[in-house]
Each structure stands twice: as C-alpha cells, then as structure tokens.
Amino acid sequence: MFSYIDHLECSKCGTTHPHTQPMRTCPDCGKVLYARYDLPKLRREVDRSVFDSRPSSMWRFSELLPVRDPDNIVSLGEGGTPLMKARQLGKALGLKSLYIKDEGLNPTLSFKARGISAAVSVAGELGLKKFSMPSAGNAAGALAAYAARGGMEAHVFMPRDAPFSNRAESTSMGAHLTLVEGTISDAGRVSKGVAQEKGLFDLSTLQEPYRAEGKKTMGLELAMQLGWRMPGAIVYPTGGGTGIVGMWKGFYELLELGWVEGVLPRFIAVQAEGCQPIVKAFHEGADHCEPWPNARTVGDGLRVPGPFADYIVLNALRDTGGTALAVSDDDMVSAMMEMARAEGVFACPEGAATLVGLKRLVRDGLVDPDESIILLNTGSAYKYLDLLRDRE
Q1: What is the chain's pLDDT, residue by residue, as a tens digit (392 residues)?
Q2: Which of 120, 17, 11, 109 shows the shortest CA–CA distance to 67?
C-alpha cells in the first residue's frame, strides 16, 4: 500500500475536510490545514524496517506522505540528505554529539525541493496544472523546476532584490517571473491577485496542506539516521517556519506509531536581527506575530515579516521547551566561512545562522553538552556567492 492519508484537519478549529479535492486553507476559519493519516492502521500493517531497503529519497516514507498513486509523484530525487557529525565544531564548542543536516544537497540546492515536490505531486493528482507562488527566492526556483519536470505551468513572484541565482533559475526552468517592490509579503499580495485573475492554484507557504508534508520528511530522516531516536535539539533558521511545523507534526506521528524512542526535540528558532517577528512574539508570550517593519537581512529566506502560521510555530517552540533568538547578518556571513572551513559544509546564510545561534546557546548554558544537537542547513552557499566576494 502507498499513502495512508485519511483526511484534512484544521490546525485551529479542528474541523475535518476531504483530501480528495483541491483545498488551500480551512474553509471555516481560514487557518492552516493538516494532512491526517490512518496511523492505527499503518501501525498494524507496516513495520519501520521496510524503510531501510528503499531508495534514499523522501518518498521512502510514502505511507506518511499524501500522494495516493506513485505514478503521480513529480520527483527530482529530493530528500535522503546526509546527517554529518560536526566533529571540529563540536570539539570547539564542547559538544559531544553535534550534527549538521545538509539540505543544500537537495535538487535546486535547498530544502524547498521537499515541500514543492509534495505539493506539486498532490496538486497534479487532483487535476491541477497551473500554479502561482510568492517567494524570497529558493521556493520559486524549486517550483519552476518541479513544474518543468511535471509538464506544468509556474508563475512566481519575488522581491525585486531577490538573488540573481534564484531569478535566473526560475526563468531558465520556464517559469513566468514577476519582480515586486518590497518583501515576500508584498509579493504574496500580487501573487494572490494574479492567481484569482488567471485561475492559478496558489502554493503559498502553509496556505495549502502539502508543502509541510514534504518538509516533515526532514524529521523522519533525522529519526531514522539517529537509529530511530529523537535528537535533543534542532536549531532551525526560521522565516515562514514550514520546516518546524512539518517536523513537529512528523515527530508526533512517529511517537503515535511507536517507531521512535525518546521525547520531542527542543526546537530553537533562529531569525535575523533585521526581521525577527517570531523572536519578539515568543519572548512577549504572544500567540501571534506583529508584522515586522522594514524587514531587512542578507538571509533572504529569513525575510518573512508576517509568517502565516505564526501561531503553530510559536506553539511548537513552547510545546518542546525550545526558544527563539536573533543573530546579525555579519555574524551569519562569518559563520558561512567557519562552517565551510571546519566541516566542509558550504551553508547558505540562513543555515549558517544556526551556528551563530548555537554559540549563544552554549554561552548561556542552554544546551546539554552530551545531548544530540542538529544544525539544520537549509540551502547551499552557491546561491549566495556575492556575500563571500570580500571574504576570500
């Protein structure tokens, strides 16, 4: 059997909806929809050992992914990224079990490949072929690539100052690119209007149910790579927060299936000083973020002034005993070089921000030197080479 998907459920009001028709957000309250699976049946019928012999991609976890017919999968080989022990950095920081999960080795060089593969595959299965999306850069490139792979049509909307690499990637793959003044929030408003005008299906972050399902496979892989044990903490660069939402959901699914040992890892959200709505809301005890004014950072994926799923991200941080902190752009770029020289991982600025955040956690005594700690590098520095031009 392939997918055990059963229905969709609203993350806010709890209403359920069919998964057999195209849906974006909850029709009743407009909030994020979760894909729900028949976990009792899955537990009875499948043993976790089946994943060991399958090809190393995110689709090895097909039972916990939303595509019902494998022929509908649109794939470029996403997932199956390495979990590497960071021995040099760990030694320098006095940490025994520090790891880097390197998502920069995905197709299109970022973790966005996972979410877009899942979303495009389900949309195609439901008869949709034309998509729109706002993006800070990497998600647009991923949508362009997967739309090309699936013979579909992509319209992407990026801030005018998005990296050239992402703009070139999108247009080279055949996507219709529109540059917008402002941030991803401004691009989102334009994208929504064009989608309505042209009959496009909008794949905005967490405004449809399935990008988070692709991202959750990072957590499924982490558990498997650690011998079906939970990590102690995950330090995660947070813009829209889809990765936290997906992994948090995925870990709960693994616990209900009885496939993993331990307790939920603490999620630590790292944002940029120039755009830190989650950090502010977390430390103020708020359930929602106020839009961050004049959002600025060289970590384009962190420049999300008003995350749509803010309430879920904040809940995940608190539920797991995690925290949130902000780091400077200059420290991010310096950490790109440090991570490369110490471990051979060429991390994007967002991924390097996790190292900056970890140093602060160590300094403040907020991590256990003996626990397993994951730095989540979300993309490759090859898309940000201009940031390193003066640091050769």
Answers
A1: 699 999 999 999 999 999 999 999 999 999 999 999 999 999 999 999 999 999 999 999 999 999 999 999 999 999 999 999 999 999 999 999 999 999 999 999 999 999 999 999 999 999 999 999 998 889 999 999 999 999 999 999 998 988 888 999 999 999 999 999 988 888 889 999 999 999 999 999 899 999 999 999 999 999 999 999 999 999 999 999 999 999 999 999 999 999 999 999 999 999 999 999 999 999 999 999 999 999 999 999 999 999 999 999 999 999 999 999 999 999 999 999 999 999 999 999 999 999 999 999 999 999 999 999 999 999 999 999 999 987 66
A2: 120
Q: What angle do CA 103, 108, 111 make, to 5 degrees?
A: 30
Q: Per the confidence metrics, is the pTM higher than 0.85?
A: yes
Select the CATH number that applies to the domain covering 83-110+210-391 from these four: 3.30.200.20, 3.30.565.10, 3.40.50.1100, 3.40.50.2300.
Answer: 3.40.50.1100
Q: Are 315 and 369 in contact (CB under 8 A)?
A: no
- What are the residue ranges spanned by the domains of the chain? 83-110+210-391
Q: How far apart are CA 60 and CA 340, in angstroms?
A: 30
What token pair was written down for 384? Answer: 């940000």
